[in-house]
Amino acid sequence: MAPKIKDVAKKAGVSVTTVSRVLNGEKYVKDDLKERVKSAIDELGYTPSHIARSLVRKKTNLIGVIVPDVTSSFYSTILSNIEQTASLNDYNLLVCNIIEDTDKELKYLNVFKEMRVDGIIIMHEKLNDEIREMIGKLDIPIIFSSVKPPDQQFISVIIDDYEAAYDATRYLIGLGHERIGFIGGDMRDVTSGQNRYIGYCKALADNGIPLVEDCVRFGDYKTQSGYTLIQELLDCEPRPTAVFAVSDDMAVGAMNAVRDRGLAVPDDISIIGFDGSQLTELVRPRVTSMEQPIREMGTVTVNVLIEMIAHPEKAPKQDVILRHELVVRDSCRRNE
Amino acid sequence: MAPKIKDVAKKAGVSVTTVSRVLNGEKYVKDDLKERVKSAIDELGYTPSHIARSLVRKKTNLIGVIVPDVTSSFYSTILSNIEQTASLNDYNLLVCNIIEDTDKELKYLNVFKEMRVDGIIIMHEKLNDEIREMIGKLDIPIIFSSVKPPDQQFISVIIDDYEAAYDATRYLIGLGHERIGFIGGDMRDVTSGQNRYIGYCKALADNGIPLVEDCVRFGDYKTQSGYTLIQELLDCEPRPTAVFAVSDDMAVGAMNAVRDRGLAVPDDISIIGFDGSQLTELVRPRVTSMEQPIREMGTVTVNVLIEMIAHPEKAPKQDVILRHELVVRDSCRRNE
DNA sequence: ATGAAAGCGCTAACAT
DNA sequence: ATGTTAGCGCTTTCAT
User: Fold this and answer.
1) pTM, whole model, 2 decimals?
2) Which of A114, A245, B266, B289 is most deeply buried (CB count within 10 A of its CB)?
């Protein structure tokens, strides 16, 4: 059996309180006692039980994280930064990977509650009623990262997706493109679905370019869906000279489809992505992308959450909006 | 304050023991009492405290996982499967991302100990003395996934890297290649460093092909290192007609470098990767790779670990060796 | 079939 | 400056 505080106290010839005091770095312990306790701890190989501590302190230093898919470059990068920032602040991560599995999410939310996690980070916006209700009466600080659920009560760390999509489209227009296809996300998603689509539409409208419904498709942000959907766009007459894909994964899928059809990016068609995932630099041509500050997003999310945990009464009422940034690489060119 | 078992007992007009009994699905509770307790639980929105439970049961249902880099396609895929299998068995994951940071790993190992996790999964093999010592006296079941540290005392879920590398090299030889470059890993790593290199050497030797030191480089498994190292191989006279990179990431980096130099894969040079990461299908040409059963690896790791947790006395003494498999795609061709 | 009470390992009044 | 003790929320003998 692992040694407990009582064993240390006995060995050092002091009370458990004294041991607890040196454990928690309190003053009011004479140096010689402190030394005795420390060597007792060393000899016994004692490590305090976080469990017991949590029980009395009513604080677990645990953050529950719900990721849609850890294998995605986008989410894993945010997760990586979440982990780093959490670790820096002595928080540990309970990670749940839900692959569109509502039951699993519900289960994990319940686990988070049982575990008495101090805070929760959620990275998807498809909240059904059950989950909404569960979350609503959870009484644990919750923050959304990179997404914004329709509910006003929750706060998010996001970019302005509307504006980012607007800027991405404008970039294409500025390059002389007028037939610009769109490969969108899930229109049930407010940020990554609706807002990006609206931004695209508005940019066209502001520049007197008519929206061609036939050049618009919606997918699920993944490579395969970009691969599939662009094929329909390539069949349009006249063919778009540029395509805006609302995720880098979809952009890469689209680029592969173009290539597999014997066409070239960007010579035959320009493609711009969205997110700023590592993939943009891995493929050839490298993907021009409207980037989110992914790493910063993870960091900010944790910092805001920790603030909410520390001061639940003054929880922020406003979303945190980070800046998006166009990073030009090689997948778009001027339309002559 | 969240309701506790005592509140439920009071509300239902029974003892806490009875509540505990229905919570844990024991028999010996009359139906009407059971009903009363259940509705009290519902009305109060009571959720048992995992903390308190863990304290008395001396079981946390927590598994600590140490990943070198969650943003890597290879590790995140294993992690995803670890999570899935753990969740299926009611275990939760405490995830630690160490980016070659020994201090952080040490810290986390200590956190795992404090948290009294039931088991630990480690996915890297660079154990320095400090970590080795820490792990040695941890008294928590530990299993290594996809890697094998030099120490005989720990068990691993791995493939036979030597044989896999041998087979990969033989595939290239079978394609008619005789000048076969090698982009290896870290020679301090037994599995992914040494064994793959030795397999490569042995395959050459068995086929009467002399090893050309100049066509061998060692990197860190990442894209950038593949990109850099292959440049030196391309300068060799005569130039290798094929290259074996011991990770898909390095293979992709190498392919990019080849392309950026105006050469083509596989027409000018064949490149075979290793791992079977998602990347192989994402880039063009798609990467022929000696694949590890990544998904199975995560599943098996958790299953074995859970077995070790349940029966610490009869811990497996043998590594679990999974089968590797060559998946032919488009990055290698016959050398005429 | 149900309940009283001890204790899991620790912290935090409170007392000295 | 140090020690005593009462919980934290639950499970689990042991009684009844």
Assistant:
1) 0.96
2) A245
